[in-house]
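README, section 4: Worked example with a bound small molecule

Sections 1 through 3 covered apo chains. Here we extend the same pipeline to holo records, where the ligand is supplied as SMILES alongside the sequence. The molecule in this example is adenosine-5'-diphosphate. Nothing else about the input changes; the structure line simply encodes the ligand pose together with the chain.
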Amino acid sequence: MSHISAVASVVILEMIRRKDVYVLLFLTALITLALGAVNFFGDPKIARYLKEVCLALIWVSSLVIAVFTAARQIPSEKESRTLFPLLAKPISRAQVMLGKFLGCWLACAASLAAFYVFFAILSATREGQWPVANYVQAYWLHCLFCGLVASLTLLGSVWFTAVSSNATIILAFVGAMLVLGRHLHKVAMKTGGLAGNLLDVGYYALPHLEWFDVRDLIIHNWPRIDWDVIAKDTLYAFAYGGCFLALACWRFRRYAIH
Amino acid sequence: MGLVVSCRVVPWPRASTGFAFGHMSGTIKPILSAENLRVEYRPTSRKGGGPKVALNGLTLAVYPGEVFGFLGPNGAGKTTTMNVLLGFTPPTSGRATIFGSDVRDPSSRQRIGYLPELTYYYKFLTAFELLRFYAKIFGIPAAQREQRIEEAIQLVELGAAARRPIRTYSKGMQQRVGIAQALINNPDLLILDEPTSGLDPIGRMEVRRLIQRLKKEGKTVFFSSHELGEVETVCDRVAILFQGELKALGPIASLMSPGETSLEQAFLRIIGFTPNEESACPISPLSLAS
Ligand SMILES: Nc1ncnc2c1ncn2[C@@H]1O[C@H](COP(=O)(O)OP(=O)(O)O)[C@@H](O)[C@H]1O
Ligand SMILES: [Mg+2]
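The generated complex, written as structure tokens:
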């Protein structure tokens, strides 16, 4: 475990010292505040609209952070040859991979926390409410989403050689799942035939990333979700994330490094 | 072509070498051994013909306490050998062990210090943080860690720069970081890939001194080089590799033919380099700059 946490701490240090997360956080805050300053005819729905925009920005930022942090880990270690002194130590490749994952996940969770605190303050100033349980639920599910995306991206990074192609494929896949995921079954029923069957297989086999997107819960201040549903979602994410990581470790072990 | 390259492999340990282990002849277990290693690289381009054989049937053993020089011109396969020994590259066939365990087993690397040929470390970390990271991976207890790091930094004379990001270091300083990280676990075996290449004369002398000091402390050093002069002064035994094949192995004196006065002469003869017949050797072994 100490090996894994050591690798993770380097990932986090790198993230702290790079400026991209601060830029995303700053841009999100700036755009939201600018929109907030423009009060369209004293529209009472402005608060909800603002929250919607802010959350959309947070989701895009978190996706970008998760994908790009995870996608560059292994390729940049390989390219800058830092992988050589690292793997010459008594550490297995699986430990390196798991450490990279843990680092990416914690880094995402930490930056998400900053985003959610901003969101909570924004919405409190507009609506005077602190639905803490809702925030915790939305935050945790969002963290699970980032973990799933990071593990999938790490798997992609030992499969595709170029960082950019990996990142593009993952972003397209995640975007498609978020938008279409819940409709796949319906589409499959309508399509029918072989294509329909394939879509149905996709519906049951692909990770349903959209289940982790509960923005409406905190936009509309709906009653919080049952905790056992959250627990099931957590297990679901761990199962899929575990599979992606196991595949990534297996693939990375067979990787010749020269 | 009439180019006959004989392979002179002198068995080790030999009583006549006068080396400290002579009395234990036959009973010492090697610290590092390679048996019949073969490495083929897949052709880089589609039309590029068959696989490139970088290493062909390499067998050698390194014994505790010796300084072993691994010599060969550029492209001979030295780095490839080290990559196999450290588990980076799986051999196409053959087997390698370190401290008796297979090189694919990460625990075989617990007592190794490795200096890569090209030194690149995480540029956003300071030398201090880098060493702490590696010390954690070696499982050095927290109580000893900081002291060990301070010692390593002092040894390579990094001084206050150790608290600056590695991004700001000169090449020589990066090499020092490399040496510090290779020594952080107080290793019994050092694997150094061309430790003096790209260093100025002072840096080279310092590395030579370091190797001698490590030998005095009873460590085993396996290093590759094409700087024959310095090899002569520090090595107990050398192996000469050429085009992926072992051409000679043994104490330096045993490789010299009558009339030869330097290792360089022996080296050139062994790899079959004749300065007048340019066609005899496709690459000049003296094109040493990497
Ligand atoms: N990744 C690689 N792919 C293809 N060929 C390689 C690769 N690495 C090294 N080689 C080839 O293998 C041979 C040995 O290389 P190397 O071990 O680096 O030599 P040395 O370290 O002795 O200079 C060279 O001919 C080199 O071109
Ligand atoms: Mg080399």
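What to look for in the output: Chain B touches chain A through 33 residues (CB under 8 Å). Helices of chain B lie at 78-85, 127-137, 142-155, 171-183, 201-216, 228-234, 252-255, 263-270.

Section 5 describes how to batch many such records.
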